[in-house]
Each structure stands twice: as structure tokens, then as C-alpha cells.
Amino acid sequence: MKFTLSWLKEHLDTDASLTDIEEALTRVGLEVEGVENPGEKLNGFRVAKVLTAERHPQADKLQVLTVDTGEQVLQVVCGAPNARAGLVGVLGTPGAVVPANGMQLKVAAVRGVESNGMMCSTRELELGEDHDGIIELPADAPVGTAFADYADLNDPVFDISITPNRQDCMGVRGIARDLAAAGLGTLKPLDAEPVAVAGAGPEVRIEAPEGCPAYYGQTVSGVTNGASPEWMQRRLKAIGQRPISALVDITNYVMIDLGRPLHVYDKAKLSGALTVRKATAGEQVLALNEKTYTLDETITVIADANGVHDIGGIMGGEDTGVSETTTDVVIECAYFEPEHIARAGQKLNLTSDARSRFERGVDPQFLEDGIAIATRLVIQLCGGTASEVTRAGTLPKVGVTTGYDPKLAETLGGLAVPAARQVEILESLGFTVQPLDGNGDPVELDAGFDALRVTAPSWRRDVDGPADLVEEVIRIEGIDNVPSTPLSRVPGVAKPTATPEQKLERKLRRTAAARGLNEAVTWSFVSESEAAPFGGGAWTLANPISEDMKVMRPSLLPGLLGAAERNLKRGATSVRLFELGRRYLADGERVTLGVLLAGAKTPRGWQGGKAQPFTAFDAKAEALALLEAAGAPVANLQVMGEAGEVWHPGQSATLRLGPKTVLAAFGMVHPSVLKAFDLDGDVAAVELYLDALPGKRGGTGFMRTAYTPPALQAVTRDFAFLVPATLAAGDLVRSVKGADKATIVDARLFDVFTGTGVPEGQKSLAIEVTLQPGEKSFTDEELKAVADKVVAAAAKQGAVLRG
Questions:
Q1: What is the pLDDT of residues 365-386, one digit of tens each?
Q2: How many Cβ atoms sit within 10 Å of the Cβ of residue 443?
Q3: Are 663 and 639 spatial neighbours (Cβ–Cβ below 8 Å)?
Q4: Is the pTM of this model over 0.90?
Q5: Cα(751)–Cα(735) distance, integer angstroms
Q6: Which candidate, 388, 458, 391, places its Cα nearest to that of 214?
Q7: What Cα–Cα distance (Å) separates residue 6 from each residue in 18, 202, 442, 784?
């Protein structure tokens, strides 16, 4: 919600400073997101008069002007066709910064002639689109005056955040009311005196009262629809609204000024009575945003004999909109039911300023005053004669009455506020307050009272009960005055609150970071196109905030791939990311850790030559290291099969604990997936499925067992086997390691050979076996026995000891 300081003072009589107003707004719950003074960017620009204009000696299209700044006469080179002696315009003096392009003006020679600044156009000052010539001001404009002061542009613009429950502050007057209650001034009375009327009003019928309970209409005949006055245009422009015409600008002005959306129809374009009804399935309307919307029977519309002309409470139609030729208008002031507006807007994916106010709930009792104010503005600015007001429907009952004990401010809100002060606060906010004695009978305020009967004003549909009244009292009195009171603490040592799952996630984050990976936090929602390579999403949002965030992610890789793509395109040479989050599958959420490696593993150098890319073995190393940190039995894991369609065939696999329990997938991402994410080069990745990790035995902690090194030195023995070329080396290593579990503590592959001496269809695998003696050293007989067991275990895999 934006408004200017001068606009606020139309409703609030105050001498408070800008800083005081800004602090008070935040204090009462209207958070200030920013304050900007458009006049500040015009420092150095002043009203100036051209005294003489002569042709530039070196350029036919330039003129050399002498310009009176009020303090001195300067020479300025200008190329504007309308520059002439006697013209009063705007001069940017040396040191000023041109708003349109950020250029700082300085004394400079233009084609050999010194120029001391620049005469400016409206586009250069960001005050319009005119760039055909310099600004021409009235001849009596005071020369030497700062242009921002002359044009009333020193008017700070507030941008405040309105919470959904504060529909009353969707207009400047509601904000002024809060500030007045907070002691920053006095709320000015609102002039809602009806204009003189003649003749019957427009014909209106309501056939869908559940969507629009009440509809007021008034005709104004003989209007002239030109440009709105400068003061109105200036305020609308300051808050980002584009002035269109007087009739349209009036509706926008009243909506922002009073929080009351209106609509104006060109009466000549209507046929028959205005009817509030439900749309028929498939009915279409061309809205004011020049888009056509297909409606259904749940949407409330305003129609006539020719069809739909207005999506009720959201946006008017193009067919009956006013134009410069409009002479007779019908002004609409209606109350639309908030829930109906919200559902219709969501269904049509259509937002508007009117919708944002109606779905929060506008004041239903303001229809009479709203149409009177709008009609008076139309007659003042456009002329014409008003008809009587047509009132259709019934206004909903509003204003909840609540019994209230003033002691609740302290017991519930934590701040002791005198009862009389609470009455003052509530009445200043528009509440009706009746003091009661101990028997519940009305009494005078100064006679003392025990309780209050409080009725909420019609513009506060959010207030419903004593707790809401406490909130009103505390926020106006000052929430910063509520003392900070610590919660009582149970004696003794606090127990740990982190769950085993949380502890595991912390450890994995530390491990990943220690390995040089950078943590990424990506959206849990992805687009349908991003989810498609991963089999699509199991869960799709019916009402997403955008099409790019429609599907709950089936994998962590889409987010990581998107992050890698953005980083690489911005000059990153190596991307090492990890993310710990949830995948959303058909049967529920799955805790997952994703790793992505892209770009160069090592940069190019004089020793290493070309930059080296990441490989599937790098992904495997990350997977094993992270699984080991998670407490998985890494030594017992099997590398099996390919990881799936997302992964590159032949360059990916899974890590399993047994044939069915998949703990991780790793390898190179499939080129087709990389193409979908606009990535070039090779990308390695890992997904760890933390929900598949086996539970820890003997406790849930992560404390390591005491370090007890063996007393005797380990012994190593090397074995070389001839095996079928299709045999996975991991299977052979696993068999060898299990040949004698009491003695063999480790086995690892250290050589693969397929050259001369190795038969066709076979390969040579060399394995180093580590033996750990117990209480005494091994004898030759014991070492031979272990060797025999190793050879026998290898033979079961089709391996033969090389000679």
C-alpha cells in the first residue's frame, strides 16, 4: 500500500515529522517497507528563464542560450527545437544527476562552446514521455526556485505492508485513523454530503445475493471525460498508478483514498437493466486488461441484456468502459462477498487492486457515503447532473458486540493499561464502547465501571472477541512497552532436544562442507518440465504461485542442476554443491542428500595441462564418504546395476546393502537431462537416500568407540587372479575379504591388467589383503591356511590364481 505524505494529511491533521510518522506506523502494526522522496532526485534542477538564443557556430541543430538561474546568468548549449528567448523552463546545473540516465552534469565544451548544465525535457526528469522539446513552464513561474518545490514533488511516498486482517488500512483514511489513535494528530471529518439529484436512477437487479448482497448505482448525465486535474494525477503517479482519464482516475483515487473500489460504465454501451447474476458455463468476457476470460457458474458477474460486462468485484469489461466520447455514466458501488471474490480470482488467475480489497472485506456500510463521494467528484471534475441512487439488495449485518474486561490487557497482553485509556483507544479506532457496572447495567464512564460492552465498527470485520480488543489496545499503547518476561525454567540440567535424525543431518552437513561442497537451498517446487526427466511429480499444486513452481520435486537434482546452470553461466569454473532436503513421492516424503559436481575438477596448469572434469568415480567417492559419516556399513556395500534413466548408462550405479536396499545412486547425469537444463559438459551427481539407512545398534548417539590399537603389526599379502572380463572387481574383493573374517581386516584392489599374457575374455585383478594377528604373530602355516581360504573364496567367483 503506497501513499504520499500530503495525501495522508488530507485525512490527518498533524505536525508530526516524517520520522515520527514512520516510527508510529511500524509501532501500530503497519510495517514501513520504504519511504522515498521523489523530489530528492531533482536536487540541482531549478526554474530558469532563457534570455537569449543564438545559433551554435559549429552546429546547425544546436543553440547557445543565456539562461537566468535567479542567482546568475549561465551559458548553456541546447538542441531542443522549442528553445527560444523568453521561455521559462527547467535547468540542470553542474553537479546535478539526470534521473533518466544517471549522468552527472558538469561544465563541458559542446562542439567548442562551453555549456554550464542542461535544459531538460520531461522524459529526462522521469516526469513523462515527452522528449520532443524542453519543459515549458508558465511565464510567471518564479525563476530561481527549486523545481521540485515549484512542482510540489517534495512529497515523500510511504510503502507499507498491510497484513491480510487489516482491510481497513487498504485506504489512506484507515491509516490516518490508526495514526490519530496513536496520538499523531486528529482525524479530519469526512465530507460525504450527497449531491443534488434529479430523475430515477439506473435499473438494477440482484439474482445472486450470495456473491453480491448489495449493489448501489447512480447515473450522471452530461459529463465531459477529459484528463484528470494535476493534483490527482500527481498523487496517482507517485504511487505507481497510470492516469488514464478523469472518470477512471476518480475510481482509482477513491479506491486508494478510502479503500472503496468502484466501477464506472458508459451508459450508452449498456442495454437494459444491470443484473448481478452467476455466469453460465463457458460464458466469456473481455476484461479491461484486454484479456478474454472464460467463466463458469460459480463466478458472480454484472451483465445486461447483451451479456457479461464485469467480473464482479475483480475487473470491469472492455466493452462498456468509458472513453473520451462518454457523456453519460453509471457509477457502481457494491459489496461483494469476500470468499466468493477470492475463489473467483484464484480460478481465473486474475489479480487486481479491487480484488485485493474485496477479498479482505471492504466496509459494507460505506456504500451510501462511497457513491456520494464518487458522484460529487465526477460532477466537480467532469460536470453533469446526477440521478437518484438505486439501492438493490440488503447490506449484511456487521459490527460484532463483545463483552470485555479491561483487566485482560494485563493478564492476556502483558501490559497494564488504565481502563479509561482503553476506552479512549477503542473509541478513537471507531469502536462503540458502553461501560457496565457489576450487574451488567450501563453506566457513565466517569461513574466507574467493571466491564465494557464493545461493538466493532463496520470496517473491522477482523475483530471478533476479547482477544482482538486486547490486540487493539496493546498495539496503540505500544507493543514496545510490554515488558520482556522470561519463561520459568525447570531446575536441573536441560535435556537434549535434537532427535537422532536431526543429529544425523547436522553431521552430514558438516562432513559435506569439510569435503569442499557448498550447501544449496533450492525450492521444494519445480516446473513440470524440470520434473519430467525424473519421471514427473507425484504431487501437483492446483493453485501454484507460478508455473515454474507447480510440482513438488521428485528429486533434489532438478534444483541443484538449475543452481549449477546459473553459476556456470555467470562465470563459475567449478561447481560443487550439496543439499539436504526432502523428495516428495507418491507414498510420502523421503529425506535425501543430493550432491552435484560440474565444471572443472582441477583447473588447467603448467604441470597438469588441460582442466580435468569430474567423473563417476568422484561421485562414488563422495557417496562413500558421506555414507560412512552417516554410519552406514560401507565395507559391506555392493555396487550394483545402473542408477536409472536420469543417469548415464555405463557411467552410473547404485550402492546397496544387499540386493534390495538401495542407499545411494551415483554417476554421470544423462546428456538428455543436461540438455533439458541447458548445461554443457559432464556433470556428476549423487543422491543418498537417508531413510534407507539401517538403524544403529546399541543406541542412537554418534559417539565413537574408544580407540584400542592392536598390539601387533598387520601383515599384507598380494594376490593376482585371472577372472572373467565381466566380473565386477567389487564382488571379488568382497569374497576375498570374507574368506576369514577373524583374520582378514581389509582387502583392496590395486591393479587391473588386460595386456599380454592375459587370455581373451579375461582380466587380471590384483588384491592386497591385510591380516591382523591377535595375541601372537602368524606362523607360516597359519599364513598359508589363510591364503588357501582366499584362493578358495575367489574360485567361487570364477577366479584363478595367476602363476
A1: 999 999 999 999 999 999 999 9
A2: 15
A3: no
A4: no
A5: 17
A6: 391
A7: 11, 36, 42, 99
